[in-house]
Amino acid sequence: MRWEQSVEYAALSDIGFRRQNNEDSFAVLVAPRADTYLKFGHLFLVADGMGGHAVGELASKMAADIVPLAFQKLRDQSFSDALRHAIEEANTGIHTRGERNTDFRKMGTTCSTLVLCPQGALVGHVGDSRCYRVRGNRIDQLTFDHSLQWELIRQGRQKREEILLTQPRNIITRCLGPQPEVDVDIEGPYPIVSDDTFVLCSDGLTGLVQDPEIGLIVKYLPPIDACRLLVDLANLRGGGDNITVIVARVGSLPDGLSELSIPVMSAPPDARSWVWFAAWCAWSLLVAIGSVLLLSSRTVEGLLTFGGALVTLGVLVIFAMRQERQQIGVSLEDNEKTLVWKPHRSAEIKLNADFLGHLMGLEQTLQTTATEEGWAIDWDEHKKSYAEATSALANRDFKSALLPLGRALHMLMASLQEERRRKDHVAKWGEKIPLPPKPKPGGEERRGA
After folding, report:
1. 7-262 in CATH: which number?
2. What distance, in Å, lies between the first and last C-alpha atoms of the chain?
């Protein structure tokens, strides 16, 4: 990725409908200048705390504070090493804080961090918050959920459908804080092309909104509108957890510049390389022995030997096909090598009448309720967006319908949230509070070079 490619991004965190406090945190650190970008890149982070009361909130806030700062301090190292060590430093800080106070003991947080840098997109990950990439008509999950469900699926002892039905979704197997040391997944760097869009989010979103839905919303909407619609949709489906989402879209290159090429190199050797080498040597030896036996007119022995060679070849092919990840080495600026991993899961993006019909049904239900209960809403502005959406739908122009429909839905959801706050206040204090001034549109969006 080049510095000349702009990054348009937005971030939004919401308490949801059923939680008393927001235990999610996020951080965005966009380089303001070319020299800063070349050294640090652009950093985005989502953390989902756990521990109850204010404990999870503290853990996620510490992760959001420590990781960006530590990453910048460690940039005498490679990007991947600096990111790994920064997340490990956050784990140490959270664990130390927890051990000092019995009320904070075992507090923890997930942490998913994306760095967009000259080498590509680099992800550091612990827990079940996710990082996605939307490219073309596909959404790819770049992180592995450190959850009981995903670990059982990886072991392959049960069918995926059985595990998803019988095992709880919210049990995670790895997070920052509870233990003095943590194993950090470093994925990438993935090559970046123009219009790649990245999504970081907590499980308050992914537990209620499916990957294809996330992909199409992010693909067809500006980042700020995508964040709002994703949060609104999760809340409309129950809002059982805090919801945090960051959307970052890489812009096109200016005329005259080409995409950075990342030279492909062989992956670093490990113990498995020697196992594969020995297996192929054994296969080659069996083929050679079989050939010699056939040439010596020892037909039966030669055919049996060739049979053993075929069996060995079949085993090698099966194991090769069952490898979960394909490793491709790429060079870093300091001549170190890292590994590019295939996405852990992918889905196709389709914008169709069914999804827009679902959104329209939600919008009409909220509109009826808002009218009956007298919610405070700018009906003229809502009517304009709603009319634009219905006109586009009538012409089957789904792409043009999504943006105004999402904005009309957000106006209603903002009023619903305000009504909830007012009712909670009345229930607690027995008096009404005046309506706050209307926020200006686009307040959550930021744009960085």
Report:
1. 3.60.40.10
2. 12
